[in-house]
UniProtKB/TrEMBL annotation:
It comes from the Eukaryota. It comes from Rhizodiscina lignyota. Pfam families: DJ-1_PfpI (PF01965). The keyword Calcium does not apply. Keywords: Glutamine amidotransferase. The keyword Magnesium does not apply. PANTHER family: ARAC-FAMILY TRANSCRIPTIONAL REGULATOR, THIJ_PFPI FAMILY PROTEIN (AFU_ORTHOLOGUE AFUA_5G14240). Residues 1-176 form the DJ-1/PfpI domain. This is Class I glutamine amidotransferase-like protein. Gene3D superfamilies: 3.40.50.880. SUPFAM superfamilies: Class I glutamine amidotransferase-like.
Length: 213
């Protein structure tokens, strides 16, 4: 799991909660990767992202830097939010580009797809992103086949989801793909979470007037 300043907490901890529950049945190892070992703040990287100067943000401690990340990493999850738009994430983007060919799967949540797109790994692929931020994201990488109505997409070994809570849905869908529907249902029920199971329909596309493919 990548983390960077200004990440969306649910983008990270929604999928982690599902994987934590899955670890009751299958062994899981989760690493939090960042450019440094400094605490990573959910505070937006610019003052414009916190116009009322609210104090509601959290910090997490990375387990590894990008340079010390596990060599046997199988799945990389990229969260989104304001931090994913930062111009200061060149090392993170380079890491995604370098690491993707070694992965079994790449998963993006929300605007984390922008980082994957900037790394070039989504070019020619079907992908989706946060519907509230749709137009600001897709124009930055027209080489991607952006799917406006999808809750999540799967193209080869790349999985991408819509915004925030969709990170839970895509993780449960991924669990179903890897471990079967019974296990995914067991995980969702343990979380007391009602799954969104239709990857092709995101109700927030209509709410945010997103049109297109």
């Amino acid at each position: 799991m990548l983390v960077f300043r200004g990440f969306e907490p649910m983008d990270v901890f929604g999928p982690i909660e599902a994987l934590l529950t899955l670890s009751r049945y299958y062994k899981m190892n989760i690493a939090l990767l960042s450019e440094t070992m400094d605490p990573v703040d959910t505070r937006p990287p610019t003052a414009a992202g916190n116009p009322l100067n609210s104090n509601v943000f959290q910090q997490v401690l990375p387990t590894h830097t990008l340079k010390t990340a596990p060599k046997d990493l199988e799945v990389l999850i990229i969260p989104g939010e304001a931090g994913s738009r930062s111009p200061l994430l060149n090392d993170t983007i380079a890491y995604i580009a370098e690491t993707y060919p070694k992965l079994k799967y790449l998963i993006t949540v929300c605007t984390g797809s922008l980082l994957a797109a900037k790394a070039g790994v989504l070019d020619g692929k079907h992908a989706t992103t946060n519907k509230a931020a749709w137009y600001s994201i897709v124009k930055q990488r027209p080489q991607v086949n952006w799917v406006s109505h999808a809750r999540w997409t799967v193209d080869g070994n790349i999985w991408t989801s819509s915004g925030i809570s969709a990170g839970i849905d895509i993780t449960l869908a991924f669990i179903e793909c890897q471990f079967g529907n019974m296990t995914a249902t067991k995980v969702a029920n343990f979380m007391e979470y009602e799954r969104h199971t239709n990857a092709e329909w995101d109700p927030f596309a209509a709410i945010f007037n997103v049109t297109g493919v």
